[in-house]
Amino acid sequence: MPDFPPLFRGLDCAGTCPVTAAIAAGQAGADPGLVCYDLAGDRLRAAILFAPEVPLAQAAVMLPLCAVGFQNALGTLAPPVVAIHLGWDGNIYVNGGRCGELTLHAPDCAGDATPDWLVIGLTLDLWPRDTEGGASPDQTALYAEGCAEVAAPDLLSAWVRHSLSWLDTWTHDGPAPLHRDYVGLVHCMGEDVTLAGRSAHLLGLDESFGALLRSGDDTTLVPLTTLIKETA
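Below the sequence we write its predicted structure tokens.
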């Protein structure tokens, strides 16, 4: 079973959606630190409930924060030759193939308002859904990339621990250390991408982790709040 750090507690969703359970807990006023999870044989699903103390526009940093936490967690458990990158939109890439995603959920409120709750969801394919490997050549799964020894409960526990560590760093040192590490992990940085319905060149990130996209002579800033989903 997963082993969570102090102030975090687990809830086994046993085949139901962890994000839905975490959102319902947040709406009911549950304390933060709840980790809902579903450890199926072919897929890991989980969600962490937070209670932000900053406005939504700042609290959205939990998406890249938990993404770097996941990269660090898998990096400690996977063989050193395995490459792990993070899509700005939450996608997770292992050896260049999309392997899962992180999602950001919060109640509908203004960016300068502090939300009552915030949930980060994680979905990770452990075994390929396309057994032939031809229908979705850009998709992969963790155990198809040389990570068969990575146990899902250990990875989930490590994700929470590393995310907590980054949360402490962000709280005490500000966003600069996280920004530095995250920029180096973003998939397709400096390349043409499609993000938030826009096809453009990904120039970089601003100080608030928003994506800077260039199309022709125009540069557009896409804030993290664009990625917020209220429901699962």
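The longest strand covers residues 97-105.
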